[in-house]
């Protein structure tokens, strides 16, 4: 049962005056304690709350990506390199006026030339239309395979049609100029692909995959890599630190030297080496990253163990004949937890960054995994044309890392007694 | 040189040896003992077992592990890394000595930027602890820390090269100038100054801006945070309170008195940052096609050039050990208390 708050009472305990809010804090439940905490933690309290909410959302996204992603992340769902929100354009077949043809089929033989703007989605529209024609013609055994001719501008392409150099030209609605209507030598033979009604929220990549869906599915990979490697490092690093700090002696010195050497080594490079040797696979990535963070846990836990084991209650336990393992587990480990929790949070952030870095370098994950690092490294090839391929996966990495490190950072500001007492 | 300083230096130097040895052993363990056959993976399945064995023979991979280990350590001591398996089969030492200056040329401006920028902001945050500027700066530092360094680089490329077109996209200098460029030291800035090639100098500097800014900004997050924590402690110390009591203005207290004394812990930080710096350099170099050691490592991993990879990583290890040693020695010169 909760007691009433008594705001006006002054209580003396020993010689030190206890602040009223500290007394209030002891009496209230967890939720109200959190709300009260805002009073003196100020900005850090907000940092914790905001990052906790963000993390909750991210974790839901990572656990149930299928509910949020509109498309299969690996499927080709639209034309390639479609800008965010832009609906797929319709494509028209432009023929020379004297041509007797009336549809694509008649100019799509292997001896025909069909022009389009280089690098535009027209090539894909044409390919799809040809595929449909080929499917229809499969029974007769005929193959339609026109020769592609690439042009830099619509004008060049249309001039080529008018001059009879090519048999047809594919142009999108946007590219169609009045020239087609006014020029007597040109004729618009109709649509080869309908314009899409709806675009893709964050556009599509070079393979026609939905960027938005890939980002959402990427959350799962990032969380798996980040959390598992932090957990593996925790499970190995913490016991090693506890034992090493408790036992001391030669074992401790050797292990500390090893851990310090590993700690001083650039983490990413170590991970690169391990990932390169182990080969592709998410399990290998997790191992490679986990190895980096074992020294982090080891150092912190060992340091704390060294100081905690001098405490009187440990001394007392030891004199009562408590087994060393029990002392470590029951008396020392609980004192180490708070600082380890903070490290864990920052660690997950770091692990996600490292994991993304590894897959950006082409190490670790199979090439078509919906992973942010892979998306970023592929997007680099389309830097000039498709900013959305880089911006959105990158923002997502930043957001997730930010949430984890903000949580760790502000928790440590709140919990770190050395700074808090200042 | 006092006796205590000399003793410290000697002890420190001897302590470096086991550290380097451990790092090299670690590299060896990773490359040779972890599951995975580097020769198989390099050659692919189509090459016959006899050919694979011939290569193993040549590289000494069929000998007992402890002999391989001694050979490996010896090759590190003599800096004789052997020849690369791919791309011209040149001695790895030659290839690395071309790449190392590029990495150094990238990291020095980055480090300078991050030190100045990070220390300034960190001190500012400490001075206004728990007030607006503090929260803003801390938020900034967390954001900067959370942005993947290659993403920041790509964004800069999109903004400054593709959109605004004011800075070059990638590389160390424009390919046209590179054709007639004499490069005795491989430090392009130094080379262009000593050959008085001012056009080249302009190009080199312009190419340097984005990569070093990216690397510097990415590192500044940690720097801000650590400066801030140290400054906060310093600002609580007695001599600051005494100064405040004497009526010394707060700004002067922060930047003249407290900051100066914070430099010692910050010095150590700069040393520790080098490890992060090298890791960041790998990603930055890949993003900006910067022909440094980091990119070399990534390229050779892609080509599965196993000897080149292990030597490069070992060189990184030696690098780290040297930097740690230098920092400790500098530290001992600055702060007499450290020489136990």
What does this structure look like?
The complex is a heterodimer of chains A (422) and B (340). Chain A is α/β, with parallel strands linked by helices. In chain A, 59% of the residues lie in helices and 8% in strands. In chain A, strands 5-4-6-3-7 form a five-stranded mixed sheet, sandwiched between helices. A two-stranded antiparallel sheet of chain A has the order 1-2. In chain A, helix 8 (211-247) runs antiparallel to helix 9 (249-264) and helix 13 packs parallel to helix 14. The longest helix of chain A has 37 residues, at 211-247. The model of chain A is unreliable at 1-14 (pLDDT under 50). Chain B is globular. Classes of the chains: A alpha/beta (422), B mainly alpha (340). Chains A and B meet through helix 9, helix 10, helix 13, helix 14 and helix 15 of A and helix 1, helix 6, helix 7, helix 10 and helix 12 of B.
The mean pLDDT of chain B is: 81
Tell me what the CATH architecture of the domain at 92-302 in chain B is.
Orthogonal Bundle
Sheet-strand content of chain B, in percent, reads under 5%
Mean pLDDT of chain A: 79
- Radius of gyration of chain B (CA) equals 24 Å
Low-confidence stretches of chain B: none
Overall morphology of chain A? elongated
Helix content of chain A: 55-70%
N-to-C series of helices and strands of chain A: EEHHHHEEHEHEHEHHHHHHHHH
Order of helices and strands of chain B: HHHHHHHHHHHHHH
Strand order of the largest sheet of chain A: 5-4-6-3-7
The strand count of chain B comes to 0
Number of helices of chain B: 14
Rg value of chain A = 32 Å
Q: How would you name the CATH homologous superfamily of the domain at 92-302 in chain B?
A: MetI-like
Oligomeric state of this protein: heterodimer
> Strand tally of chain A, please?
7
Proportion of residues in helical segments of chain B? over 70%
Low-confidence parts of chain A = 1-14
Q: Give the termini separation of chain A.
A: 34 Å
């Amino acid at each position: 049962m909760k007691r009433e708050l008594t705001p006006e009472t002054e209580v003396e305990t020993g010689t030190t005056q206890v602040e009223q809010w500290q007394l209030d804090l002891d009496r209230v439940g967890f939720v109200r304690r959190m709300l009260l905490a805002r009073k003196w933690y100020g900005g850090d309290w907000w940092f914790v709350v905001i990052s906790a909410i963000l993390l909750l959302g991210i974790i839901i996204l990572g656990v149930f990506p299928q509910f949020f992603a509109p498309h299969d992340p690996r499927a080709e769902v639209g034309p390639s390199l479609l800008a965010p929100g832009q609906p797929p354009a319709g494509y028209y077949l432009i023929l020379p006026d004297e041509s007797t043809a009336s549809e694509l089929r008649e100019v799509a033989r292997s001896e025909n030339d069909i022009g389009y703007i280089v690098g535009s989605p027209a090539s894909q529209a044409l390919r799809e239309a040809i595929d449909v024609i080929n499917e229809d013609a499969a029974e007769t055994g005929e193959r339609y395979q026109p020769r592609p001719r690439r042009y830099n501008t619509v004008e060049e392409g249309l001039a080529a049609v008018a001059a009879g150099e090519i048999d047809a030209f594919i142009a999108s609605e946007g590219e169609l100029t009045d020239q087609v209507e006014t020029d007597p030598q040109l004729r618009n033979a109709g649509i080869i692909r309908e314009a899409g009604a709806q675009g893709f929220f964050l556009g599509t990549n070079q393979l026609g995959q939905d960027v938005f869906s890939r980002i959402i599915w990427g959350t799962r990979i990032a969380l798996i890599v980040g959390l598992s490697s932090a957990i593996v490092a925790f499970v190995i690093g913490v016991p090693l630190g506890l034992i090493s700090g408790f036992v001391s002696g030669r074992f401790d010195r050797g292990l500390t030297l090893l851990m310090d050497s590993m700690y001083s080594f650039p983490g990413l490079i170590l991970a690169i080496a391990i990932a390169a040797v182990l080969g592709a696979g998410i399990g290998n990535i997790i191992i490679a990253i986990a190895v980096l963070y074992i020294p982090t846990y080891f150092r912190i836990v060992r340091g704390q163990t060294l100081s905690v084991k001098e405490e009187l209650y440990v001394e007392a336990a030891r004199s009562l004949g408590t087994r060393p393992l029990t002392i470590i587990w029951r008396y020392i480990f609980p004192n180490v937890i708070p600082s380890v929790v903070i490290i864990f949070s920052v660690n997950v952030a770091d692990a996600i960054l490292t994991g993304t870095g590894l897959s950006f370098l082409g190490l670790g994950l199979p090439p078509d995994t919906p992973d942010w690092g892979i998306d970023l490294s592929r997007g680099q090839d389309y830097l000039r044309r498709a900013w959305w391929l880089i911006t959105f996966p990158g923002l997502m990495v930043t957001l997730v890392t930010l949430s984890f490190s903000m949580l760790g950072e502000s928790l440590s500001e709140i919990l770190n007694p050395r700074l808090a007492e200042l | 040189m006092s006796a205590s300083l000399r003793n410290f230096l000697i002890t420190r130097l001897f302590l470096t040896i086991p550290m380097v040895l451990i790092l090299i052993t670690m590299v060896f363990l990773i490359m040779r003992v972890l599951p995975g056959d580097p020769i198989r993976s390099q050659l692919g399945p189509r090459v016959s077992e006899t050919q694979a064995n011939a290569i193993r023979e040549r590289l000494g991979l069929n000998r007992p592990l402890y002999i391989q280990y001694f050979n490996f350590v010896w090759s590190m001591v003599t800096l004789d890394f052997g020849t690369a398996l791919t791309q011209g089969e040149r001695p790895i030492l030659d290839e690395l000595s071309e790449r190392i200056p590029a990495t150094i040329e990238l990291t020095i401006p980055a480090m300078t930027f991050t030190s100045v920028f990070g220390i300034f902001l960190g001190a500012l945050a400490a001075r206004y602890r728990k007030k607006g500027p503090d929260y803003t700066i801390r938020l900034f530092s967390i954001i900067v820390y959370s942005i993947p360094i290659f993403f920041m680089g790509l964004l800069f490329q999109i903004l400054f090269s593709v959109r605004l077109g004011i800075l070059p996209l990638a590389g160390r200098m424009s390919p046209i100038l590179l054709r007639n460029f004499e490069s005795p030291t491989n430090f392009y800035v130094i080379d262009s100054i000593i050959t008085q090639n001012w056009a080249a100098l302009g190009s080199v500097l312009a190419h340097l801006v984005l990569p070093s800014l990216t690397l510097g900004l990415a590192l500044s997050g940690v720097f801000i945070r650590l400066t801030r924590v140290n400054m906060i402690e310093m600002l609580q110390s007695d001599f600051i309170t005494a100064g405040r009591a004497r009526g010394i203005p707060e700004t002067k207290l922060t930047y003249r008195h407290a900051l100066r004394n914070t430099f010692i812990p910050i010095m150590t930080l700069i040393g520790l940052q080098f490890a992060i710096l090298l890791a960041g350099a790998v990603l930055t170099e890949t993003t900006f096609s910067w022909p440094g050691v980091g990119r070399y490592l990534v390229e050779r991993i892609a080509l599965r050039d196993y000897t080149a990879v292990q030597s490069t990583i070992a060189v990184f290890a030696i690098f780290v050990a040297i930097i740690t040693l230098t920092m400790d020695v500098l530290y001992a010169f600055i702060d007499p208390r450290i020489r136990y």
